[in-house]
Design brief:
Radius of gyration of chain B: 31 Å
Largest sheet of chain A: 9 strands, mixed
Shape of chain B: elongated
Structural class of chain B: alpha+beta
Strand content of chain B: 15-25%
Shape of chain A: globular
Helix content of chain B: 25-40%
Radius of gyration of chain A: 25 Å
Number of domains of chain A: 2
CATH superfamily of the largest domain in chain A: Alanine racemase
Oligomer: heterodimer
Helix content of chain A: 25-40%
CATH class of the largest domain in chain A: Alpha Beta
CATH architecture of the largest domain in chain A: Alpha-Beta Barrel
């Protein structure tokens, strides 16, 4: 049978002659047509576009291998899922099933964790804002309260005296580990002695039990050795506590901040080549902790609040091309139905974007814009991308972290989130928002009717 | 006074290898069927024990009847063979002294030189001296005969009577009723001994009939009592009861018959009654001979303080099941996290012959793959460059740190062990860790290391085609010396999605294993310290009582908890696990239930762990079935009891240790099935708060700790 050849839209490409450069030859785009055997078009047909897709298998794999990597380097390790990274019930539940606790930074996250069956003792309550009410709950639940500042410490002293209950606390410590920016707005400073002072105050209180030390040196840290410095400093602080007060602390919490495979906007080389592997982070932390021999009775457990590195690559955002355009300077532009409202991280990441259908091997510098009627709604200012037709699908990868928590309900309602389960089934884990959902919270004063 | 009475009663019990006071009292009573004999025997033991107390021998030994029973036999024999008068009594008193000294010397010498008991040899020697002395003079007359029977042989009546009389003659009572009483006491003390006494007596008759059909009844009694005593010794009391020991009894009885003939003839002209000499001769000979075997796993000789044969067997079996591989130094796995045993003992590749007790460890992922990507470089292997730790405290005696890594698939036979650390542990045994990463060894020769210290990284040097650790215990500091079978004190083995606790065990090939992680709360609750006191409220049959406990220690460093009800539970803590080892006392106390529930508790609270332990069925509340099954104990140990444990954490972070004890019978006794269950609760601060114990679904006891 004589089939008609597929129509290919003409592209204009600058012609490069001669040798290929050190990054190889010209990019040839390869499509991502399915996720775990599910065709993207089938998924959007059923659940609409745009659509977030999560993979249960990938999440479990990530957590399992992270546990393996850390536990083979340090004898006692406990992960706590960082709720703010992605607090969808389905996601949190998987992490909890894999043995991870909950790390929360607000009252509602705290309550959410409890609703998901996490015992108070297995909740790490972080963050600079903790209301008195939530502190009372946390004290009663025996949650691990990580104190951020002196005012919070004073609140705790007052509350535990009133309640005649013991609070189990740790302090968050910030320190110079040789990287920029220095995150000194959280916790007590190590170098200027503020941390020691906080510890003195805590140990003087009979109702405060100092059980741990916490630090979180930053986010998207690409220099693993910083963690080693931080770990040693905390272990030295733990030894100081033991020397001074004969208190054996239960744990050292190294927080999170491991980079994922997303490339930052300012980065020249792709993340695959610059970001340390989890093994390297783990080596750095374990070495930092073990090199300083702990003097207390039992080695403290290492807590990790890893978020991004465990979830980013387990989620995809499928979007549909709304229109093709040429900008005034001749750059080709694509308008898609998901913008910065759903892909908040595109403010700082160059997300990996692929077409969902078999497309032309030729690519052209293309800007990708979202659907918002706002100038800032730009997903990518220019990347090599094949020609797309209206209605065709494109996929953004590594979108699991922060997007499903920081997304905006702005101009558009937030879309469906589905999860491809281990058994191959597909479950809707968050329904697309509707006008009713929006109106539910609104009150129209009678005077205005 | 109390202990003096004990010393007398236990002396009587000792004659029949019993350690029960009541049993001694029954025997004492039985000796009074012929009151004169009973009285002189009693005087004999009172005198013997008085001498021992007066001369300050070990009071514990005296109380256990150790020095008294030869006095009983001597006294009984004197008045059995001679007419008592004043002169004879004076001489007998002197001879009690002689008996006592012979006893102490023989007991001590046999114990230290041969590790054997003295049995009644002191009595025989002393009594021979006595007879030789007395019969040289004519101040006394003796009724020196066993002429007890006039009846025709082998009526049923005769056989029963002869059996009883054989028993009663052991304590030199001519009255067969004394024997009947002893038989009943035996039945209550030990079904095994009771069965043995009948069996040995029957074998004795059949064999005698085969050899000497016309023999007199007196010979039958002499061989009979020797056979019975011998069967007790080799069938249950000195050798643990088993099928094999039952056969051993069969042959022993035939040997006894022959030996009796020999000794009878030998001493005939000296006019000495041979009495229990054949039994003493043969039992000491046989037991001593059995000590020279290379494999002592059957016909097991008693190696601990004796109880009844049943108790001995239960103790032995339970001990074997629980602590067969126990070693005093508590080794751990030499790494952090979960590893896979890629080659175990008697492995297919290199763990053969003298090197068979070694392990190779690697790390695998969920799909049991050792590497990520294509596994084309060392870095792809999960275990490559992971930390290797010291398995035990010790001193580093050898470090090889300069062997290059092999390329994947290649091996270095010239430097077979590659980079290696050898650590010397107490009592001169060594551990070897090999195939380490070049230049990764952080310790130097002569350095002291602690268990769990990071000492090197896993590499691929020596005879190693892909990264792994080789680990073995060995007797010298020579790299790659022959291996020693030494257990890991405790570790967890992955079973499906759970972790089974293994104590004093050897990681098996193709299993995933990891070290135990201690939980502070459980450790605080179960790490009993000397002098700790507890107050409890036990509700039992709707009665509530207060019980108190105190943690104490014996002179030989055995920890125990003693309750205000005078019960004792011994325990020890091995590394990270609490083990209860024994319980003695009342089976209704809170301590008893606690002993059952906490027989093994690791200080680890992972929800996914579970463990099992074995119980001695003598310690469980199932007396009647057990007694019944013990008639057949020589055939098989039909009833077994296992506890299955798990851990649950409650909403408020208190921890529950749950235990299900299952008692199951096999073959003949497969109808037996009983379940007990219980829970111990520990609050979130690590205090024991209470426990409950139930049978099927009926609560037997509910206990609360009161502060």
């Amino acid at each position: 049978m004589n089939t008609k050849n597929k129509y290919e839209r003409p592209v204009i490409n600058k012609f490069y002659s001669g040798m290929m450069n050190k990054f190889g030859s010209q990019t040839i785009a390869s499509p991502l047509k399915e996720i775990e055997g599910k065709r993207l078009n089938d998924l959007t047909d059923k659940f609409g576009s745009p659509l977030f897709v999560l993979s249960e298998k990938k999440i479990r794999q990530n957590q399992k291998s992270a546990i393996r990597i850390f536990k083979t380097r340090y004898p006692k390790v406990q992960f706590a899922w960082s709720y703010k990274t992605n607090y969808l019930n389905a996601v949190c539940k998987i992490f909890h099933q894999e043995g991870s606790w909950a790390e929360v930074v607000s009252e509602f996250e705290y309550e959410k964790a409890k609703l998901l069956g996490v015992r108070g003792e297995n909740i790490i309550y972080n963050g600079p804002e903790k209301s008195r009410e939530s502190l009372i709950t946390a004290i009663k639940d025996r949650a691990k309260i990580h104190i951020d500042h002196f005012d919070e410490l004073y609140d705790l002293i007052e509350l535990t005296d009133e309640l005649k209950l013991k609070a189990r606390v740790a302090i968050r410590v910030n320190m110079d580990v040789g990287i920029f920016p220095k995150w000194d707005r959280f916790g007590f400073n190590f170098e200027n002695g503020e941390a020691h002072q906080a510890i003195r105050r805590i140990t003087a209180q009979k109702n405060l039990e100092l059980i741990g030390l916490h630090t979180h040196i930053g986010t998207y840290i690409t220099y693993a050795e910083s963690y080693k410095v931080a770990a040693s400093k905390l272990m030295n602080l733990a030894n100081w506590i033991y020397d001074e007060y004969k208190i054996t602390i239960d744990y050292i919490d190294m927080g999170g901040g491991f980079a994922s495979l997303n490339t930052l906007k300012g980065q020249y080389l792709p993340a695959e080549q610059t970001v340390p592997s989890l093994d390297q982070y783990a080596d750095a932390i374990a070495n930092g902790l073990l090199e300083v021999r702990y003097k207390g009775e039992e080695l403290p457990t290492l807590y990790l609040e890893t978020g991004r590195a465990l979830i980013d690559d387990a989620a995809y955002l499928i979007s549909t091309v709304i229109a093709n355009k040429r900008l005034s300077d001749g750059t080709r532009a694509l308008i898609i139905d998901a913008g910065i409202n759903f892909l908040f991280t595109s403010f700082w990441y160059k997300h990996k974007i692929s077409q969902a259908t078999e497309a032309d091997a030729h690519t052209e510098n293309t800007a990708i814009y979202g659907p918002l009627c706002m100038n800032i709604d730009c997903i990518n200012e220019g990347m090599n991308f094949p020609a797309m037709k209206k209605g065709e699908k494109i996929v953004m990868e590594y979108v699991g972290a922060y997007n499903m928590t920081q997304w905006l309900q702005f101009i558009k309602m937030r879309p469906n989130i589905i999860m491809i389960m281990n058994d191959g089934s597909i479950e809707l884990v968050r329904k697309a928002e509707t006008l009713n959902y929006l109106l539910e919270q609104e009150l129209l004063p009678l005077k205005l009717t | 006074m109390h202990s003096f009475i004990n010393s007398i009663l236990y002396s009587y019990a000792q004659i029949f290898f019993s350690n029960r006071r009541w049993f001694g009292a029954v025997i004492l009573f039985a000796t009074f069927f012929e009151p004169q004999i009973g009285l002189v025997a009693l005087c004999g033991v009172i005198l013997s024990n008085s001498i021992a107390y007066y001369l300050k021998f070990d009071p514990q030994k005296i109380e256990s009847g150790f020095y008294g029973f030869n006095g009983i036999l001597f006294g009984a024999a004197v008045s059995f063979f001679f007419k008592m008068d004043f002169t004879l009594a004076v001489i007998a008193v002197i001879f009690i002294f002689i008996t006592f000294f012979i006893t102490t010397v023989i007991e001590h010498y046999f114990a230290t030189a041969f590790n054997l008991p003295g049995l009644s040899l002191p009595f025989i020697i002393s009594f021979f001296i006595f007879i030789v002395f007395v019969t040289n003079y004519s101040f006394t007359s003796h009724n020196y005969s066993f002429a007890l029977f006039e009846e025709t042989k082998y009526s049923a009546h005769f056989l029963v009577k002869a059996y009883f009389q054989s028993l009663s003659l052991i304590v030199l009572q001519p009255n067969f009723l004394a024997g009947a009483l002893i038989a009943i006491a035996l039945l209550f003390f030990s079904r095994v001994l009771f069965v043995l006494s009948i069996f040995s007596f029957i074998v004795n008759i059949l064999f005698l009939e085969l050899l000497l059909p016309q023999i007199s009844a007196n010979i039958l009694l002499i061989t009979g009592l020797n056979s019975i005593l011998t069967s007790f010794a080799v069938g249950g009391s000195l050798i643990l009861p088993s099928r094999k020991s039952f056969f051993f009894v069969l042959f022993s009885v035939m040997i006894i018959v022959i030996l009796t003939g020999f000794f009878y003839r030998l001493f005939y002209f000296a006019a000495l009654p041979i009495f229990v000499l054949p039994f003493n001769f043969f039992v000491l000979l046989a037991i001593y001979s059995l000590k020279f075997r290379k494999d002592q796993t059957d016909l097991t000789l008693l190696y601990f303080a004796p109880g009844s044969p049943e108790e001995n067997l239960y103790y032995h079996l339970t001990n074997k099941a629980r602590f067969e591989n126990y070693k005093y130094y508590f080794a751990e796995l030499p790494f952090f996290g979960e590893w896979f045993v890629s080659q175990g003992f008697d492995g297919a590749f290199t763990h053969k012959g003298e090197w068979k007790y070694a392990w190779d460890f690697v790390v695998v992922d969920e799909n049991l793959s050792e590497f990520s990507n294509e596994g084309e470089s060392l870095k792809d292997y999960y275990c490559y460059k992971l930390t290797v730790t010291a398995p035990l405290d010790g001193e580093v005696v050898k470090v090889v740190n300069d062997v290059e890594n092999n390329k994947l698939g290649q091996i270095n036979i010239a430097k077979n062990w590659g980079n290696t650390v050898i650590i010397k542990h107490d009592f001169d045994f060594y551990s070897l860790l090999s195939h380490l990463e070049i230049d990764s060894i952080k310790v130097v020769e002569g350095q002291k290391v602690k268990k769990g210290d990071a000492i090197a990284l896993c590499g691929n040097s020596g005879r190693s085609p892909s990264p792994h650790i080789h680990f073995q215990f060995q007797p010298t500091d020579k790299p790659g010396d022959k291996t020693i079978r030494y257990p890991i004190a405790n570790y967890l083995e992955k079973v499906e999605n759970n972790w089974q606790l293994r104590g004093f065990d050897f990681p098996k090939e193709a299993t995933i294993i990891k070290n135990l992680e201690t939980n502070k709360t459980l450790k605080k609750a179960f790490d009993f310290q000397l002098g700790e006191k507890y107050k409890l409220e036990i509700t039992h049959n709707s009665k509530t009582e207060i019980e108190e406990w105190e943690v104490k220690i014996t002179n030989d460093n055995i920890y125990y908890i003693e309750s205000s009800t005078d019960d004792k539970a011994t325990f020890f803590i091995a590394n990270k696990i609490l083990y209860f080892t024994n319980y003695s006392g009342n089976k209704k106390s809170a301590l008893y239930y606690f002993y059952l529930l906490a027989i093994q508790i690791p200080f680890c609270s992972e929800e996914t762990i579970f463990w099992k332990d074995h119980y001695s069925i003598a310690k469980l509340p199932i007396k009647f079935i057990r007694y019944f099954s013990e008639f057949f104990l020589m055939l098989n140990h039909f009833i077994s009891a296992t506890g299955k444990f798990s851990i649950h954490t409650k909403e408020n972070s208190s921890i529950i240790v749950a235990n299900k004890i299952e008692i199951k019978g096999s073959s003949l006794f497969s109808f037996i099935k009983k379940n007990f269950a219980g829970h111990i609760s520990v609050d979130n601060e690590g205090n024991l708060t209470g426990f409950d114990f139930s049978q099927e679904n009926k609560k037997l006891a509910y206990v609360k700790f009161i502060n």
